[in-house]
């Protein structure tokens, strides 16, 4: 049996144990979803480099560890204090904490919410809010599109669940904190499953924050489903700074109705290998979508963003700005697919990917993939890979500033352009703080300025 | 203060400066004029230490030191300042952070204590008054989204804060309205002393009504082809460069 085959067997064994354990209490329809997914997983198997979507992203390191699904009782105890230390800044009034994929009531704190809002964990929601959960769970994500999503779906149990009723605005942002923790030799996989439903004319802001409690190896395999109804506004900010030994996969699936507005931001800084899929179906007229991201990698880290903007109806703007800072032998992959159907006239889509290489050994594979079947559209794309701008370096040096300090200022400035796209101020400040911390501790940069936005 | 001898320099294998000789003493203001593309900015950039330019001959002695051997930041720390013809935008870094970093590096290099935030802000506010800049510019990213004239004013603000010994102003007057021009000139005149010197690159005699030069030089095709007093600028304004270009051809 090769590694891939034995891994499939491993996850099947885990699945049997999982279905018998804590997850067994879930309603029958959830079991059905899981069962269908494990079959897809078994049939598809893990992707190889021959698979176009994984051409530059070698996942075999993930297959070398026997990651276990932790059943709720075996989840390690986490002190509240250790979380406060981890979070660099105060972030949100509503904090939901998950440890190795399981909701922790003790560590969470949900403030006062407008009437009708449901903010809880998925394991609870599939029981207490069965009707809503059942209508959407697994309906927005296309399990068959990615084997990791299938694997996640097979282990659907817990994650963030948010339902915002029609016309309701949640003013305070929601912070979902996903902690990974090891226990001695044992390595764990967290199958996080998030479901976000914004009804007509509602709005909310969410931060997904992925962190490791130790420098342990862990595997986060998450799927997030977002349903944005007519005229709703959803902002999702993802911060991924798990340990350097860990693996990360998340597939964010968005379904947008007319005149809705969705903005996703991804800060990818952690993990040995991190893959972020973002798939947006813009399924209504005059809906707007913004995808932005910043990745900061060093050592032998690999970070991958695969995005899809699927335009079905006319008059929809979609914008993407992804920027990368790469040091040492790191590698980044960006693949931006824009699919414009014949009906989707007056689509206004712009995609930009800019990479700053701080080392000669860092590599970037960037590829726009535009498939346009409408004739009256404005679709642009651009990609750049290069070092620091000489004119900028010279300008700073001409003011007495030394090479190292100049470099730090320019790297921070490079990052600021894209973190400035985050509209929620608390989130933006948090992301900026993580960026500075990361540049200092992982990339060894000193005397960095504070990030300012114009 | 600075002595340039037979300076040859170019970029990308193309020779632009073809033997420049210029001596500037403390307390003097020199104006450099000349047609587009004659090499004025190249001279300014070479003096400031832009690494893309290659010096192929000649020497520059500044304050008794070989300027061409120094890194750009060392030149700045030694008191050389260039107000750019095209100031560069630095996104994400505030104007005040940038200026404080520069000033403190210069102070450090000269054995002075760095200023703390309070001291710096006080100094910055004073200097901003000098160039009549609004407080909001302190916190905005360096030059980002500044209008052409605001960028030029920001250059003069930087000069005022860094207090250089030798300031080279490359077309700081271009793109300025008449009020801004007076403000910029006023800034220069206030900073002017018997210990410092200015090299002012300009296309317009207008500026020289406000910043009165001791010498005017005409740079054509990489060479200074004529030097004189401030009346030379008036002459050029009236007659253009044609006659000078002709004369240069004859002597070449
Ligand atoms: N990077 C470069 N590569 C090739 N040629 C260059 C480069 N930079 C400058 N030059 C050329 O060098 C010459 C001198 O340019 P410079 O900018 O010094 O002129 P200038 O006198 O300042 O002109 P202006 O009055 O228009 O500002 C020009 O012909 C210009 O095209
Ligand atoms: Mg010029």
Description of the molecule:
The complex is a heterodimer of chains A (454) and B (252). Chain A is α/β, with parallel strands linked by helices and 454 residues long. Chain A has 2 domains: 3-283, no CATH class; 391-454, no CATH class. Helix content of chain A is 24%, strand content 37%. Chain A has helices at 3-20, 28-44, 60-63, 80-86, 122-128, 130-136, 147-154, 390-397, 403-419, 425-441; strands at 68-69, 94-99, 102-109, 118-121, 160-164, 174-180, 188-190, 193-198, 203-212, 218-228, 233-241, 247-256, 261-268, 273-282, 288-297, 302-311, 317-326, 331-340, 348-357, 363-372, 378-386. In chain A, strands 1, 4, 5, 7, 8, 10, 12, 14, 16, 18 and 20 form an 11-stranded mixed β-sheet that branches. In chain A, strands 3-2-6-9-11-13-15-17-19-21 form a 10-stranded mixed β-sheet, covered by helices on one side. In chain A, α1 (3-20) runs antiparallel to α2, α5 (122-128) crosses α6 and α8 (390-397) crosses α9 (403-419). The relative contact order of chain A is 0.09. The model of chain A has no long low-confidence stretch (mean pLDDT 92). Chain B is of the alpha/beta class. Chain B has one domain: Rossmann fold. Chain B is 39% helix and 28% strand. Chain B contains 9 helices and 12 strands. Chain B has helices at 40-48, 72-77, 95-109, 117-130, 148-162, 178-191, 205-210, 231-239, 242-251, and strands at residues 2-11, 14-24, 29-33, 53-62, 65-66, 80-83, 90-94, 141-142, 166-170, 197-201, 215-220, 223-228. The chains are: A alpha/beta (454), B alpha/beta (252). The interface between A and B is medium-sized, with 30 and 37 residues.
Rg of chain A, Cα atoms, Å: 21 Å
Order of helices and strands of chain B: EEEHEEHEEHHEHEHEHEEHH
Low-confidence stretches of chain B: none
Q: Do you know the CATH topology of chain B?
A: Rossmann fold
Q: What would the principal axes of the Cα set say about the shape of chain B?
A: globular
* Low-confidence runs of chain A: none
